[in-house]
Automatic annotation (TrEMBL):
CDD domains: AmyAc_Glg_BE, E_set_GBE_prok_N. It catalyses: Transfers a segment of a (1->4)-alpha-D-glucan chain to a primary hydroxy group in a similar glucan chain. GO terms for biological process: glycogen biosynthetic process. It comes from Marinobacter orientalis. Gene3D superfamilies: Glycosidases (3.20.20.80), Golgi alpha-mannosidase II (2.60.40.1180), Immunoglobulins (2.60.40.10). One of its GO terms (cellular component) is cytosol. The keyword Lyase does not apply. This is 1,4-alpha-glucan branching enzyme GlgB.
Length: 628
C-alpha cells in the first residue's frame, strides 16, 4: 500500500520532470494511515487558490475534504479514511480569479462510462499475470531481424455481440485472439483505449491518459486481454496520443484556471484543424505526465509498444498554419525544440526500461533520423510509418492500368529512401474513412480486377522491405467504408472470392514468417536488389529480397494482361519454383502461373548470368525460390 504522505523526493523528481512512477504518487491510491484504511489523493494545480476532493462519499460537497498544498511544488494532497476501491471522485478547484471548477483526475486510472466523467478509485495488484515467458523473450528479442506484421483494430467496431452491443475486453480475448492467430499476424495494434468522451473520435481525443476506457470493461479485463494475447504469442501495441487533447471542461483544459497543460497563446496552444489543445512540452511536469503515461501502459498493462499519433504536428510549430499564425523558436525556426526533447526522452526511457518494446512514429514528413538514436541527432523511435510508400502505391493503383506506365516512378521512388529509416508499411484506418472508400474500392476496374488488385497490393506489401500493418477488414476485402458505429461486414466471408483474400493474407503471413529473406534484413539496404525497375511499358517490376545468403525473387504485373515468356535475370542458376502466386484459384484468381519447377537458363539477362522465362498472371504477383 502507498504511504498517506508524499515524500520530498517524489515531489522533487516530479518538479524535475523525471519521476517515472508518478502514477504511483499523483491520483488516488488506497493506503493506510495509522492502521486506518483510506485513500490518498494528490493533484498538481499550482495556480489554484483552494482544492478539495468531492465524491459519492461526501455528497460532492467541496467543503468536506480540503486538500493541503506542498510548498511551491503546486501539488495538493489529502488522506480520506474509510473509503476505497470503487468510490467516485473529482477535484473541486477554486481558481485565482475565484471561479469554481469541477475537474476529473488527470492521473485517474478508471472512469465512469461516458457521458458521466467521474474518476473511480482503483486498487492495484490483484491481477495474476501468466505471460512471464513472453516478457522474458521480448527482452531478448532482435526485432530488426524478425517478422513484424500488425493487425490494426478498433475495438468497438471489429465485431459486435449478437445483441448489437460492443464486445467486452474478455469477449475480444475469446474471439479476436483465435482470429489473429489463424491469420498469422505477430501483433495487434489497438486504436486508442485511453479514456475519451466521444465515440466518434475513435479515442484520439483523450481525457484519461492513465485509464483504459470503461466501454469494454474494467482495467483488469484489459489486462486479461493482453495476458491472453501474450500466452498465444501475439504482441499488443497501443495507439497513444501525446500531441494534443480535447477542450472538454471537465478534463485538462485550463485545469486550475490557467493554461497549465497547454500554452496560453493560441498560436502555440491550439490545433486549428482539430479544435484541440497542444501540450506545453517545455514544462517539466507536463513532460512527466506524458512520459509517465507511456511507462504506465508498458508496466501496468504489459503493453508491447506504442504507436505515437500525429508526430509531425508536434515537431513543427507551423504545422497546418499560415504565416502570422505561429511563433518561431528561439533560433527563429519552425522546429518545436521542446517537443523534440520530449520525444527523445520518451524513447530513451521507454526502450531502456522496457527492452523489446516498440515505439512507432506516425510521422508524415521528411523529418530526418526519426528512427535513429538521439545520441547522433535522431528522435529515437523504433519504427516510422512509411506514409510516402502508402500514398504512392495507392495513387498508382487508382490509375487505370492503361496509364500506369506513365506513373511507374511511384513504384520505384520509394526505394531511394527505403533504408533511411526503420519503416513500417501502413494500410491503416486513415485510408478507409472520410469518403476515401474501402481498400478494395480504391482499386480500378470491375469486381474481378478489384479483387485481383487488392491481392496484388497485399502481396506487394509483404514482399516490400519494412514491417507491415493492415487495418481490420482489409484482410477479406471489406467493401463498405469503415464506420466506428457498426461491425465489419463479416457476411462477405460467405463468398469464396472474399474468403480467398483472407486465405491470401493468412498464407502471406506464414510465408513472411518462414522465409528469412522476406524479414531478415528488411531495414538494411543489403536486403533488397532490383532485378528490373525499368519496364514501365508493361507495368512490371521485379526485385530480390535477401537475408542470410537466401534470396527470394518477386515479380509483379500491375496490368490485367497476362505476360507469357517474360524473361527475368536470376541471382544464381539451378532449378527454381514458384512458392507464391496471388492469382491462385485458392485465393479467387485465374490460376495462371508457373506450377512446375523451372531450370534456369545460362543466358545473361538484366546484367545477371542466369535467367528464366515466366508466365506473369494478370494483376498478379509471384514469388520464386531455388528448388530444394
Amino acid at each position: 500500500m502507498d504511504s498517506p504522505t508524499l515524500s520530498d523526493y517524489d515531489l522533487h523528481l516530479f518538479a524535475e520532470g523525471r519521476h517515472w512512477h508518478i502514477y504511483n504518487v499523483l491520483g488516488a491510491h488506497v493506503c493506510k494511515s495509522q492502521a486506518t484504511e483510506g485513500v490518498r489523493f494528490a493533484v498538481w494545480a499550482p495556480h489554484a487558490r483552494v482544492v478539495s476532493v468531492v465524491g459519492d462519499f461526501n455528497g460532492w460537497d467541496p467543503d468536506a475534504h480540503p486538500m493541503s498544498p506542498h510548498d511551491s511544488t503546486g501539488v495538493w494532497s489529502c488522506f480520506i479514511p474509510g473509503i476505497g476501491s470503487g468510490n467516485l471522485y473529482k477535484f473541486s478547484i477554486t481558481t485565482e480569479a475565484g471561479e469554481q471548477l469541477l475537474k476529473t483526475d488527470p492521473y485517474g486510472q478508471a472512469f465512469e462510462l461516458r457521458p458521466a466523467t467521474a474518476a473511480i478509485v482503483t486498487e492495484r495488484g490483484h491481477f495474476c499475470w501468466g505471460d512471464g515467458d513472453w516478457l522474458a523473450r521480448r527482452g531478448r528479442w532482435n526485432w530488426q531481424q524478425s517478422p513484424i506484421s500488425i493487425y490494426e483494430v478498433h475495438a468497438a467496431s471489429w465485431r459486435h455481440h449478437g445483441s448489437g452491443r460492443w464486445l467486452t475486453y474478455r469477449e475480444l480475448a475469446d474471439q479476436l485472439i483465435p482470429y489473429v492467430t489463424e491469420l498469422g499476424f505477430t501483433h495487434i495494434e489497438l486504436l486508442p483505449l485511453t479514456e475519451h468522451p466521444l465515440d466518434e473520435s475513435w479515442g484520439y481525443q483523450t481525457t484519461g491518459y492513465y485509464a483504459p476506457t470503461s466501454r469494454f470493461g474494467t482495467p483488469d479485463d484489459l489486462r486479461y486481454l493482453v495476458d491472453q494475447c501474450h500466452r498465444n504469442n501475439i504482441g499488443v501495441i497501443l495507439d497513444w496520443v501525446p500531441g494534443h487533447f480535447p477542450t472538454d471542461e471537465h478534463a485538462l483544459a485550463r485545469f486550475d484556471g490557467s493554461a497549465l497543460y497547454e500554452h496560453e497563446d493560441p498560436r502555440q496552444g491550439r490545433h486549428q484543424d482539430w479544435g484541440t489543445l497542444i501540450y506545453n512540452y517545455g514544462r517539466h511536469e507536463v513532460r512527466n505526465f506524458l512520459i509517465g503515461s507511456a511507462l504506465f501502459w508498458l508496466e501496468a498493462f504489459h503493453i508491447d509498444g506504442l504507436r505515437v499519433d500525429a508526430v509531425a504536428s508536434m515537431l513543427y510549430l507551423n504545422y497546418s498554419r499560415k504565416e502570422g499564425e505561429w511563433l518561431p523558436n528561439i533560433h527563429g525556426g519552425n522546429e518545436n525544440l521542446e517537443a523534440i526533447d520530449f520525444l527523445r526522452e520518451l524513447n530513451r526511457v521507454c526502450q531502456s526500461r522496457f527492452p523489446g518494446t516498440l515505439v512507432c512514429a506516425e510521422e508524415s514528413t521528411s523529418w530526418p533520423q526519426v528512427t535513429r538514436p538521439p545520441e547522433i541527432g535522431g528522435l529515437g523511435f523504433n519504427l516510422k510509418w512509411n506514409m510516402g510508400w502508402m500514398h504512392d502505391t495507392l495513387d498508382y493503383l487508382q490509375q487505370d492500368p492503361v496509364y500506369r506506365q506513365y506513373h511507374h516512378d511511384k513504384l520505384t521512388f520509394g526505394l531511394v529512401y527505403a533504408f533511411t529509416e526503420n519503416f513500417l508499411l501502413p494500410l491503416s484506418h486513415d485510408e478507409v474513412v472520410h469518403g476515401k472508400g474501402s481498400l478494395i474500392n480504391k482499386m480500378t476496374g470491375d469486381e474481378w480486377q478489384q479483387r485481383a488488385s487488392l491481392r496484388t497490393l497485399l502481396t506487394y506489401m509483404y514482399a516490400y522491405p519494412g514491417a507491415k500493418l493492415l487495418f481490420m477488414g482489409g484482410e477479406f476485402g471489406q467493401r463498405r467504408e469503415w464506420s466506428e458505429a457498426r461491425e465489419l461486414d463479416w457476411s462477405l466471408l460467405a463468398y469464396p472470392e472474399h474468403e480467398g483474400i483472407k486465405r491470401l493474407v493468412q498464407d502471406l503471413n506464414g510465408l513472411y514468417r518462414r522465409e528469412v529473406s522476406l524479414h531478415g534484413d528488411c531495414f538494411r539496404p543489403q536486403g533488397f536488389e532490383w532485378i528490373d525497375c525499368h519496364d514501365s511499358p508493361q507495368s512490371v517490376i521485379s526485385f530480390l529480397r535477401i537475408a542470410n545468403g537466401e534470396a527470394t525473387v518477386i515479380v509483379v504485373n500491375f496490368t490485367p494482361m497476362p505476360r507469357h515468356n517474360y524473361r527475368i535475370g536470376l541471382p544464381e542458376g539451378g532449378t527454381w519454383r514458384e512458392i507464391f502466386n496471388s492469382d491462385s484459384e485458392y485465393y479467387g484468381g485465374s490460376n495462371l502461373g508457373n506450377p512446375l519447377p523451372m531450370p534456369a537458363d545460362e543466358q545473361p539477362w538484366m546484367n545477371r548470368d542466369w535467367s528464366l522465362e515466366l508466365t506473369l498472371p494478370p494483376l498478379g504477383a509471384i514469388m520464386l525460390r531455388p528448388a530444394p
